[in-house]
Specification:
Layout (H helix, E strand, L loop, with lengths): L3 E6 L2 E6 L10 H16 L5 E6 L3 E3 L10 H13 L4 E5 L2 E3 L1 H8 L2 E4 L4 E3 L13 H4 L5 H10 L3 E2 H7 L4 E2 L3 H13 L3 H34 L2 H11 L9
Parallel strand pairs: 2-3, 3-5, 4-6, 5-7, 6-8, 7-10
Antiparallel strand pairs: 1-2, 8-9
Helix pairs in contact: 1-2, 2-8
């Protein structure tokens, strides 16, 4: 059963994360299917832009703790989103957590509705937002990101706009997306590709410079005793041992 649905209308491909029972968590299967769909969009001359959206009440809950993707696969997916020569637009009407914020940060434009909430929950299970920092650190406000990285607290779409995670927050997501998609449809493929390359150059520099180090950091943290306790506590719906 596929967990990424693909549709195309008027040169815009919509990729829908469709694993609501798993809160669209980043499983090995979802990461592989999304990477494959992005490759197909990149090779299709009829696709001008890509919309990344979801079913259910969660855009993406972060890494699937029961079936995590290989770290290199997640790095590859995030880099693919950034490097794709076509704009990628996130359409969010639900919750985004941990690794899901990496997907969001790798998109070029992002709009979320009033039901959307956000949180970097890594610190609460004993790890760090290491790999997802590759697209996020070059694009987001450092002070705002420090607060959300260090506390793991939940925040809303308006704060996500201020942080730099979102382009806009709107009561009607599709109405807010309409002028963005219209603008992309009116733009030349060559112009879009060259302009996106200008905008993403420093983000791709971060991938080339830091990906190996941050992947190693993530692996080291996830294999630690604190992370095992944190993940076990999360799955058992209890506080980990360090909570005071």
């Amino acid at each position: 059963m596929t967990v990424v649905r693909v549709a195309c209308e008027r040169a815009v491909a919509t990729l829908t994360l469709d694993a609501p029972a798993n809160r669209n968590a980043l499983s090995a299967v979802l990461v592989a299917e999304l990477a494959r769909a992005l490759t197909e969009c990149g090779e299709d001359d009829g696709v001008r832009a890509v919309v990344l959206t979801h079913t259910g009440n969660t855009f993406c809950a972060g890494a699937d703790l029961r079936d995590p993707p290989p770290p290199d696969a997640l790095v590859g997916l995030l880099r693919q989103l950034v490097a794709l020569p076509k704009p990628v637009v996130a359409r969010v009407e639900g919750h985004v957590r941990a690794g899901g914020l990496g997907l969001l940060g790798a998109c070029d434009l992002a709009v979320a509705g009033p039901a959307a909430t956000f949180a970097f929950t890594e610190v609460r299970i004993g790890v760090a937002p290491a790999v997802i920092s590759l697209p996020l650190l070059p694009r987001c406000d450092p002070r705002a990101l420090a607060r959300h990285y260090l506390t793991g607290e939940r925040f809303d779409a308006a704060e996500a706009v201020r942080t730099g995670l979102l382009t806009a927050a709107a009561d009607d997501v599709d109405a807010a997306l309409a002028p963005l998609l219209d603008g992309l449809r009116r733009s030349s493929p060559q112009g879009l590709a060259a302009t996106k390359a200008l905008l993403t150059a420093k983000v791709l520099e971060a991938f080339d410079r830091d990906a190996a180090e941050l992947t190693a950091l993530s692996a080291r943290l996830f294999s630690s005793g604190e992370a095992r306790e944190g993940m076990t506590a999360f799955l058992e719906r209890r506080d980990p041992a360090w909570v005071v």
